[in-house]
Design goal:
Blueprint lengths: L3 E8 L3 H9 L6 E5 L3 H5 L10 H4 L5 E8 L5 H14 L4 E5 L4 H9 L5 E3 L3 E5 L11 E5 L11 H13 L5 E5 L5 H8 L4 E6 L2 H13 L6 E5 L10 E7 L2 H7 L7 E13 L3 H10 L2 E9 L2 E8 L1
Parallel strand pairs: 6-7, 8-9, 8-11, 9-10, 11-12
Antiparallel strand pairs: 1-3, 1-4, 2-3, 5-6, 12-14, 13-14
Helix pairs in contact: 6-7, 9-10
Length: 306
């Protein structure tokens, strides 16, 4: 099997934000094809008459961002994640992902996805694998389908570890950008009275609710389709956001509206190069960091309101 290339076309003014979002899924690297400043870049070193005519016809308004997906990842899931996150950032885009046979890719990906132990007490159980027997861990059954959140990505694992640490019996949990529902479902299995997930992607919401059925937590966990917190009601004791830095920064401005006294706000999906931007937004909006969890260039931050 070979690595899969996924290419996203965006306006050149959206390059930085879009690149941050795609970096989330760029397991084999990222390459930005940008001709927006062609004249400035080459005029001083190359006479115009020597530049290839094909280069001169390149689109100057758009950029192509190429990422590479490892064979054991589900490229359809990655495409769904990118599409959802770019929509959340209000970035117009086109995604090119060429698959020979979608079913073949899904089956190839599944052969790599084994049960995963996370933290001290959690075990992620793919429903298409034989169940792990004789375990004392809390088992989360997952069929990710086309939604993000298998537990394979560092950001999800870091967030699950925080969910395990900060979930207490009887609390209400809000999962912003819930994807497969893995975080909110985990919190209910760990004793939360109620978990509410929201995602802008209808497919993700459907899959999240199906995963709630798999884990027998229907009524405790519910996912709805909407723009971040627009449908959330009341106050929550634990707020989760496994998204990207720019969306988290935006959340810091009003997320306190949904936080009960002494609530914990867990943020993951932050590339380490954007950590200082997130920290600045948290400080500006009255949050203190109580824990920092890094792994392989990704950071999970845990905070409380001052």
């Amino acid at each position: 099997m070979q690595w899969t290339e996924l290419t996203v076309k965006v306006n050149h003014t959206d390059t930085d934000v879009a690149s941050d979002i795609l970096s989330f899924a760029a397991e084999g690297g990222i390459y930005v094809e940008d001709y927006s400043s062609l004249e400035e870049d080459v005029y001083e070193v190359i006479p115009w008459g020597m530049i290839d005519d094909e280069l001169l016809t390149k689109d100057r308004e758009s950029v192509l961002i190429h990422i590479y997906i490892k064979p054991e990842s589900n490229p359809v899931e990655v495409k769904a994640f990118i599409d959802e996150r770019l929509n959340a950032a209000d970035i117009a885009h086109e995604i090119d992902l060429v698959l020979k046979e979608e079913d073949e890719w899904l089956n190839n990906w599944r052969q790599y996805y084994q049960p995963i132990e996370v933290g001290e007490n959690l075990l992620i159980q793919p429903v298409f694998r034989d169940e792990v027997k004789d375990t004392d861990r809390t088992v989360i059954k997952i069929e990710p389908g086309l939604a993000f959140g298998t537990g394979n990505h560092e950001s999800t694992r870091l967030c699950l570890e925080a969910v395990e640490k900060y979930t207490e019996k009887g609390m209400r949990v809000l999962d912003v950008g819930c994807g497969s529902g893995i975080l909110g479902i985990a919190s209910t299995l760990l004793g939360a009275k109620e978990a509410y997930g929201v995602d802008i992607d209808e497919t993700a919401v459907r899959i999240a609710n199906e995963n709630a059925e798999l884990n027998s937590v229907v009524g405790k966990f519910t996912a709805e389709c909407g723009d971040l917190t627009e449908h959330a009601k009341g106050k929550f004791n634990l707020v989760l956001a496994n998204i990207v830095a720019d969306v988290i920064i935006s959340l810091t401005e009003n997320i306190k509206t949904y936080m009960a006294d002494d609530a914990v706000f867990v943020m993951s999906g932050i590339i380490d190069t954007r950590e200082q931007d997130v920290l600045a937004a948290l400080d500006k909006n009255g949050f203190d960091i109580i824990e920092r969890k890094p792994e392989n260039g990704w950071v999970c931050l845990v905070s409380k309101s001052r």
